[in-house]
Amino acid sequence: MCRFVVYKGTSPVELSHLLTKPCHSIINQAFDSRLRLDRRRPMNGDGFGVGWYDSVYDEESYQPCIFTSITPAWNNVNLVRLAEKIKSPLVFGHVRATTAGSLSLDNCHPFVHGRLMFMHNGGIADFPLVKRRLQADLPDVAFNKVQGNTGEEFYNTLFDVLLNFFADSEWAFALFLSKLPDPNAKSFTTAMLRDAMFKTIASLNHYAEEAGITEPSLMNFCVTDGETVIATRYISSKTDEAASLWYSSGTTFSEFGGGGHYKMSKADKRENIIMVASEPLTFERADWMEIKTNNMVVVTPKMNLLQIPIVDKFYVPPSDPASLTRTTEFAREKGLLVPRSMETMESEELH
Q: Which of 13, 92, 118, 201 could be joined to 173 by an S-S link, Cβ 3.0–4.6 Å?
């Protein structure tokens, strides 16, 4: 399965401080995710992607920059070179272990439309059973956006059944675009992006219910327009934990003690930096807070961080004792959960 990281700051960060230099950077997670506790222990070697916005806003070039490759992230010299030269106040990073879609640049996250970036960690259960239903609901601007064989249209061929297994993530992005008032707009309010994400998850659940699908879908989605960041930790189940998702905030994110060990420092109450990640980038236990299952995190343009429950039939309020008994087996088997006990053990190992 995949891993992603998001950085939003009041000042630009050199990409290497997120991607290559930390000893548990997303690149090292791709090579050896010690915190994953995956029985298969796969490597995220099926490509990677990095997206960022210019440090200085230019109305003529408001779209994010994207660099993707199908080579393993840890073995890409160009990524190392770029990471040491590029600075940005908003960065998306994603490493891929394919579950749907072939190995091609079109299938590498993050996906882009206009000024929007989108990425996904997880999987839409039995996606072939809902794919055409989803497509039928899309307006042309969203349908035509899909480029990878997460959505290549080879219908009415002998390969149709196989190709229907491809690219749930890019189709989820297309569905998200269809929920916006105008996906081609040059600006979006926080409420627009938040509501579109709520509607995207609701539609995917509706399609699954129509198709009689009982296996849970893991929908850790993340989207930004360069100002607001929306991230979800979600599973369509009342009894299972979602794929892991964490956040960290502070005033500086820097190396200490050598060896690629980083920490988030809090000099005062200001939030100059907010990071969201599938796995913590540091082994400092105090740096990271776990996002609750079936919650949305909203990072506003003014650097406020809000946690909003995704209230539907799969939501269990914290006041309900059942919220403490969600099982971890489903996400763990798919390599998508960072167990708290394992995180503690690794942290103690390093100190």
A: 118
Greatest Cα pair distance in the chain:
62
Is cis: bond before 216, omega within 30 of 0? no
User: Which has the closest alpha carbon to 349: 288, 290, 285?
Assistant: 285
Q: Please, what is the Cα angle at 69 between 58 and 222, to 5 degrees?
A: 60
* Tokens matching residue 97: 């272990």
Paired strand residues for 219: 122
2 catalytic residue (yes or no) = yes
Which two structure tokens, joined as six digits, stand for 314? 């799969």
Please give the share of the chain, as a percent, with pLDDT higher than 70.
79
pLDDT above 90 coverage of the chain, percent: 57
| 40 token code pair | 């298969």
Tokens representing residue 250 in the block: 């502070």
| 154-201 pLDDT tens trace | 333 333 433 333 479 999 999 999 999 999 998 999 999 999 999 999
In the chain, beta strands by DSSP E: 3-14, 48-52, 65-69, 87-95, 111-113, 116-123, 218-224, 229-233, 246-250, 252-255, 262-265, 273-277, 289-290, 295-299, 305-309
Cβ atoms of 280 and 343 closer than 8 Å: yes
Residues 131, 171: contact at Cβ < 8 Å?
A: yes
Is it the case that residue 119 has pLDDT exceeding 80? yes
Would you say the C-alpha torsion 76, 18, 107, 3 has a positive or negative sign? Answer: positive
Provide the 10 A C-beta neighbour count for residue 197: 25
pTM: 0.86
Contact 91, 51 (CB under 8 A): yes
Give the side-chain half-sphere CA count within 13 A for 340. 8
Residue 298: what pLDDT?
98
Identity of the amino acid at 113: H
Q: What is residue 25's three-state secondary structure?
A: coil
pLDDT for res 269: 81
- Among 157, 164, 170, 156, smallest CA distance to 200 is for 170
> Quick one: which of 86, 107, 75 has its CA closest to 2?
107
Predicted confidence band at 89 (pLDDT cuts at 50, 70, 90)?
A: very high
Query: Rounded to the nearest 10 degrees, what angle do helices 168-178 and 190-211 cross at?
Result: 120
